[in-house]
Amino acid sequence: MTKTALNLLLVEDDVGIGRMLERGLTGAGYSVDWVRDLAAAVSAAREHTHHLVVLDRMLPDGDGADFCAALRKFGHPAAVCMLTARETLDDKLKGFDAGADDYMTKPFEFDELLARLAVLGRRASLQKPELTIDEDNRTLVLGASREKLTKREWPLMEHLLAHEGQTVSREDLIGDAWGLAGDVTDNSVDVYIGYLRKKLATIGAPVRIETVRGEGFKLVR
Fold first, then answer.
1. So where are the chain's domains?
2. What are the φ and ψ backbone dihedral angles of 7, each rounded to 5 degrees?
3. If DSSP states are collapsed to H, E and C, what string results for 177-217?
4. What is the pTM assigned to this prediction?
């Protein structure tokens, strides 16, 4: 089976169903984060970038529809498939009103779930969030994922983003990004570039900072 290379958040409190879904979805090529309640789902959504969410409605600490609505309120780009025993028309309408992209009721056929997720995954792959910097809060932003930058990190990241695809020398970063002269070294730049690389990886950013030997650094996709 072709690997999807998509990250999927599974929110399901039933241990038997959760294990079956985790095993089957992992076997289908998804990278699965399985959580069992809304509190854990919120934490997972903050800490990781997910392309898809398979979401139960009846959870120990609330209705999955509220979690879906919160994702949409904060601009989370993940496609959401609700998978729940709540099957009335009113239930389905509430799910779609909360921002669900699809709605399946239990019991369900796993192959049908895979087919529906494949459709949502194709949409998600075409709707990649843009990496930006919230200058007021000195924060890297990718969809709903955020990573705080230090006073020294954010001007470097801003300069690299503004010159994406171009090689930027250490001297340029010191002078143009930091506006400093004499009190920092080339090694200081290397240290902070290392910090930025870790933070970009943490939020799953679609860019990386390459070292161009003898010249400097380049931000590439």
1. 7-126, 131-220
2. -90, 135
3. HHCCCCCCCHHHHHHHHHHHHHHHHHCCCCCEEEEECCCEE
4. 0.61
